[in-house]
Amino acid sequence: MSAPPENPAPKREPGEWKPQILGILCNWCSYAGADLAGGGRIQYPPDVRVIRVMCTGRVDALFVLKAFADGADGVLVSGCHFGDCHYLEGNFKGAKRMFMVKRLMKSIGLDDRRFRMTFVSASEGAKWGAVITDVVKTINELGPSPIKELNK
Amino acid sequence: MAEKKKTTAKKTEAKKETKHEAPAKQETKKQAPAPVGSTTKQEARIGVFICHCGTNIAGSMDIPAVQEYAKTIPNVAYVDNYKYMCSMPGQGVINKAIKEQKLTGVVVAACSPRLHEPTFRTATKEGGLNPFRFEMANIREQNSWVHMHDQEGSTEKAKDAIRIAVAKASLLQDLFPKAVQVEHAAMVVGAGVAGMQAALDLANAGIKTYLVESTPSIGGRMSQLDKTFPTLDCSQCILTPKMVDVGRAPNIELMTYSEVDAVEGYIGNFDVTIRKKARGVITMAEGEARGIVGGGCNGCGDCEVVCPVVKPNEFEVGMKPRKAIYINHPQVVPLLYTIDFNSCIKCGLCVTSCGEKKAIDLEAKDEFVKVKVGTAILATGFDIFPVEKKTEWGYKKYENVVTSLEFERLICASGPTGGHLIRPSDGETPKKVAFVLCAGSRDNTGNGKPYCSRFCCMYSLKHAHQIIEKIPGCIPYLFYMDIRSFGKMYEEFYYRIQDEGGKFIRGRVANILEDPATKNLHVYADDTLLNRPVDMEVDLVVLAAAVQPMEDTNRTRKLFGVSCSMDGWLLEAHPKLNPCGTTTAGVFLAGVCQGPKDIPDTVASAEGAASAASIPIHKGEVELEPYFAMCIEERCAGCGMCVNLCPFSALALVEKEGRKVMQVTEAKCKGCGTCGGFCPGGAIWMNHFATPQIVAQIDAFLLGGEQ
Fold it and tell me: Cα A8–A10–A16 angle (5° rounding)?
């Protein structure tokens, strides 16, 4: 895997739309991986805001939906690789719920690419940079969430 | 609704009091789970402390702008910044502000909570607040360091991060860690030099230690080596006294030919199930227990003589035969024969030859033993990379291409050839030997290992010395990329080998071809110092193969909940500051299972791990993070979905006031929150990661602090 480019953040004019992306990370793998990316000074766009939970098993489908209802343009849930969960199998159970969220999003007409679950281990700092870069790129392509317009 | 919530609060309070006794003064402060959007929101007075971390943070973002913004966030009563928040004066700022500003919660915007959460929790406690009323905003690892050239972006991100943290801090509650007793025993998995050293240290510190080894004898890789660099000590000579010590130590319970089968529990109280593989031979102690006078295996070897089954000896890398009932080499500890039941034909000849000792039981079955330990050390070691994967070097295709481990056995006086180095094809003494260094290491082709295996340079130098010493006129040619002689007296050893006549060719070996008539080998390389291609005809090629984790490491690490890095080595808690610890409290790493190490480093890491593992045991008590689940009984429908979700069997349905509700066994709950993430009625309150707290964070991010 190649490291993302030096400064992949797109240049924006003042007042231009910036994606609001929520990241929910498990403490043991993805949060540690994100910390490792920091230690390695791997540069990625600054559009994701992170909430730390102990395990992706903690992620209620409603958290993701609440974020979208609040107007989030994208949500990223990231945990350990399967078989690597600090709590044995929390990520399996979390992932199962996230499939449900994706199906629900499709059925209400929200592009399910706005929501992603990834698996980044504590040793994959470079991968974390690549994941964030790709998530931000996807959301930039999709543009503002339609729910934002409805909320106005 | 409000009334309902009050009853919830009362109930949980009552439940808490019966469940665990917190110190008396904390009783008054203790709060039940605050219902969503309760009065605590208005009362919250949060202090925000922004760290510059020198220029680590301040260099990438506008700290004054962040500070000005933080003042406008709801519930924020006080904002301050300091150059190094984690320093004593920095912590003093927090301490003072809590008292003077009557804060109810603290937010520190600095590095990762994985680094300094414990520091600031202590500072919060010293200020007079419950330590769990602290929340960290990560503006370094996940902000200033990764957006170094985007000041606007990182400043905005820091503002949001602080707003999110304040929202959570406003809803945080007092929590009280539960102290648990630590079992006065430890376990070491793997009995190579690392495991033995760790076990000896623990045992000498007065701790009962279970040493579990999957092969029939302790000793590990080091017992297979001939000499050690750079001192040229005989490996067996320095190792066997240690092996005997381990066998004799009264505090060590040696479990050879055994594997860890299951692990339950947590630091202080691990319940480990060990599978003692069917060995088919009983010890003298077991013989006595069965009432056989003078019975049990005394290692006489009469059985081995009569056994008709011949198999390759793993210890000699398959270059010497063994029987189906065997010991791998004369120095095994314990001196106890083992039956390889995969090849045994159960002819019974061994039973007859054993006679009155009655040590052999051909019907033996695997046994399961359960032990309780406070801490555990993993020392599972390494294996040789299957270098036949690099087809260009012809290992397993050409007879005269051997690995370094095979070379160790061939040059070893107790090895298959009695220490006479020979060519496997014809038994002749080689006169020209090529050593291929980095055989599979530092290899980015995807076919090898990207890392440096660290000790191959040095043992190849030692091999070169050994053949110069043993075979007059024999010339070693070392094909190397770089010679990495980093240790104490290592560089000097490198010079010595150069003086003794070792030939060094700087170039990666591209190809090895065999001359079918003579079985000599042509080594093709590019000499990068002389800038010309090399075709050298040699008698023997030794591949300094890369190392990789033992095959079973992955299974073992999952049992203990330890992560691994991308190349399979077990992951330490912190690469610099906690190289022996893991993210699972009470589990430590020793030796090469954490990454390639030579013998001195392995022993040092084992002693470090033993010291770390003995601390909780000597303290006698550890505090567990109070992140366990609680049931809000009013909302619980008793559906039992959570009971099935819990991987630790911590939840159960109980009958209360005529209906079924869920009950948590706090000691078993590890706080993952898988139950809380599913509960359809929102009846599960995850301490410190409660639904209202997380929802407040989401709202704070997207709706700008309004809750």
Answer: 155
